[in-house]
């Protein structure tokens, strides 16, 4: 049973990879948008920060689930 727990925890940690890729893509697109429309910089930045917070929270949830799987064998 411990092998399956380790595999499950490893899969849960992979959520962080998806979140990291999503945040990188969003940051790149926001940079392009600011380059095209500098006057909308504040609106773009606010939307970007909200999106980054949501993506980071999914990574944190995956990390917490991985820890719970390991601790609660």
Short overview:
This protein has 73 residues and is mainly alpha-helical. Helix content is 89%, strand content 0%.
Fold and architecture overview:
It contains three helices and no strands. The chain is mostly helical. It has a single domain, classed as F1FO ATP Synthase (Up-down Bundle). The longest helix is centred in the C-terminal third of the chain and has 31 residues. The chain starts with a helix and ends with a helix. The model has no long low-confidence stretch (mean pLDDT 89).
Order of helices and strands: HHH
Structural class: mainly alpha
What would the average pLDDT be, to the nearest integer? 89
Number of domains: 1
CATH topology, which one?
A: F1FO ATP Synthase
CATH architecture classification: Up-down Bundle
Number of helices: 3
Distance between the termini: 8 Å
Described by the principal axes of the CA atoms, the overall outline is elongated
Could you tell me the radius of gyration in angstroms? 17 Å
Helix percent band: over 70%
Could you give the count of β-strands?
0
CATH superfamily: F1F0 ATP synthase subunit C
Tell me what portion of residues adopts beta-strand conformation.
under 5%
């Amino acid at each position: 049973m411990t092998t399956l727990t380790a595999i499950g925890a490893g899969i849960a940690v992979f959520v962080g990879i998806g979140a990291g890729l999503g945040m990188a893509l969003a940051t790149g697109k926001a940079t392009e948008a600011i380059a095209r429309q500098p006057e909308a910089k504040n609106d773009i930045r606010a939307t970007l920060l909200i999106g980054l917070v949501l993506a980071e929270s999914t990574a944190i949830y995956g990390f917490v689930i991985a820890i719970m799987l390991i601790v609660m064998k």
